[in-house]
Specification:
mainly alpha; 2 helices
Length: 53
């Protein structure tokens, strides 16, 4: 689960770099949504991982 979250975080950061850089206004909106979505998923996976251990 943590592996997937790290993969999604990296994808969100890449999308944010392209989106926030001003390449396209639509890409910036999508990148912001993905960035925050994957941060939430990352935090959830950290919390669930600690409960299991």
């Amino acid at each position: 689960m943590l592996r997937w979250t790290i993969t999604f975080i990296v994808l969100a950061i890449i999308a944010a770099v392209f989106g926030f850089g001003g390449i396209a206004a639509g890409a910036a909106g999508i990148a912001k949504i993905l960035f925050f979505l994957f941060i939430v998923l990352f935090l959830i996976s950290l919390i669930r991982g600690r409960k299991v251990l």
